[in-house]
């Protein structure tokens, strides 16, 4: 089993991992991911500091800069498209975006740029001056992305907020997989467009939960020019200690966002989330869930977009209050050890089961730094660790084994 090769890792670093002979014992399906993981780990700890990232000043033109809402107005006054609050310039040249304000590709790119900068600035606002590093990259096949990482902060040990806007040709194998999922697509290679935002936040204090979210839009064009499009995404929470009030706040905020669009969405997407983030070999969930959906192409493109927008905008109110509430809570060695152990479980899920990670890593020329950005800076494995049922750790395990109906909807 892949993961058993890791437990010698120390709690506060990865000195043991620099012995590369350890990696040679790793066999199994996770081999490739694990190797890249180790390599990345070393990169992060030893080389990261010297790597030349493009540090874009995050000190921003003050308050007055308004995010401009009416895309339609932009076509009248082209250079009004205000990109000054974004973490970096849009991936698509601003001139091109201004020319197609009604196109979903434009709307989605502008949405994820804004979600990224709002979330990064919101996280920075609870830090003691630690800022995001901004890395803008491009892909020779088309498009690129903006990767923002905040590492070794006071509140956040590692926070990654990533957007990507890519286009090109889907290989026939990928098209076949989409056809198998019910997409009406021709066989062979087809042009595609994908834009998404994804983030994983690992706080230092074990009383502050980890959050993950991802919202994405996909388009594939058939030979006759017809376009298949869909949205996917979700937000989920992974606490180390269970606080029921926090769990209810988090789920309530997501439900409110869903309810504005369809009264059936929250329940459906909560269940989907509970069934997705499962660490199968342990029979437990990664966390307390949230919402998760894919292949959303109804009721129409604009309404689906508005739903995704509401979900993405619910991230800050669902999470930042929990950070503020708990960032100064007291904790000791035992709580920290438990946090690291649970992060190990997070890694198990991401490397063994997460489709996004696997898809990314097996793609030739994959940008593994971004794909593995979601992994925590430190984690821990302990042989046969079993918290007692009546401990605080045991209380968390209970809800990871049997997901709860946080908002008491079944009883109504
Ligand atoms: C984050 O960036 C990587 C490429 O560096 C990409 O593969 C991944 O899909 C991105 N995530 C999202 C949701 O944009
Ligand atoms: C275009 O091609 C797709 C896939 O083969 C097909 O489902 C669709 O009906 C076609 N549309 C038109 C307008 O011919």
UniProtKB/TrEMBL annotation:
It holds the Pfam family Coprogen_oxidas. Residues 1-25 are annotated as: Disordered. It comes from the Eukaryota. Its EC number is 1.3.3.3. Pathway: Porphyrin-containing compound metabolism; protoporphyrin-IX biosynthesis; protoporphyrinogen-IX from coproporphyrinogen-III (O2 route): step 1/1. Belongs to the aerobic coproporphyrinogen-III oxidase family. Homodimer. This is coproporphyrinogen oxidase. It comes from Fopius arisanus.
């Amino acid at each position: 089993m892949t993961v058993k090769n890791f437990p010698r890792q120390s709690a506060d670093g990865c000195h043991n991992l620099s012995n590369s002979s350890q990696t040679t014992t790793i066999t199994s399906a996770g081999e490739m991911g694990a190797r890249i993981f180790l390599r990345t780990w070393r990169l992060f700890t030893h080389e990261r500091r010297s790597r030349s990232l493009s540090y874009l000043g995050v000190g921003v033109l003050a308050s007055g800069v308004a995010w401009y809402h009416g895309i339609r107005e932009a076509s009248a006054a082209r250079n009004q498209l205000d990109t000054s609050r974004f973490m970096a310039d849009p991936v698509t040249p601003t001139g091109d975006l201004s020319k197609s304000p009604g196109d979903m590709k434009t709307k989605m790119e502008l949405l994820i740029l804004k979600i990224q900068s709002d979330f990064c600035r919101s996280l920075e606002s609870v830090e003691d001056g630690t800022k995001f590093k901004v890395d803008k990259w491009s892909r020779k096949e088309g498009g690129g992305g903006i990767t923002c990482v905040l590492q070794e902060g006071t509140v956040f040990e590692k926070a990654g907020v990533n957007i990507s806007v890519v286009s090109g040709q889907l290989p026939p194998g990928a098209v076949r997989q989409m056809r198998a999922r019910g997409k009406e697509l021709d066989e062979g290679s087809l042009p595609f467009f994908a834009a998404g935002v994804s983030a994983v936040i690992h706080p230092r204090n074990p009383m502050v939960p980890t959050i993950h979210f991802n919202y994405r839009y996909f388009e594939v064009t058939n030979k006759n020019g017809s376009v298949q499009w869909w949205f996917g995404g979700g937000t989920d929470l992974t606490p180390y200690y269970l606080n029921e009030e926090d769990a209810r706040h988090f789920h309530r905020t997501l439900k409110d966002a869903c309810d504005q669009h369809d009264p059936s969405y929250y329940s459906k997407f909560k269940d989907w989330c509970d069934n997705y983030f499962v660490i199968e070999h342990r029979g437990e969930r990664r966390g307390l869930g949230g919402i998760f959906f894919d292949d959303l192409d109804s009721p129409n493109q604009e309404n689906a977009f508005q739903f995704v927008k509401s979900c993405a905008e619910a991230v800050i109110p669902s999470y930042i209050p929990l950070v503020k509430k708990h960032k100064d809570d007291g904790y000791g060695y035992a709580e920290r050890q438990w946090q690291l152990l649970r992060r190990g479980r997070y890694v198990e899920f991401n490397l063994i089961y997460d489709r996004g990670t696997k898809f990314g890593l097996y793609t030739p020329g994959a940008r593994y730094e971004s794909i593995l950005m979601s992994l925590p800076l430190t984690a821990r494995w302990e042989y046969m660790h079993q918290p007692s049922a009546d401990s605080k750790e045991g209380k968390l395990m209970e809800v990871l084994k049997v997901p709860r109906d946080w908002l008491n909807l079944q009883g109504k």
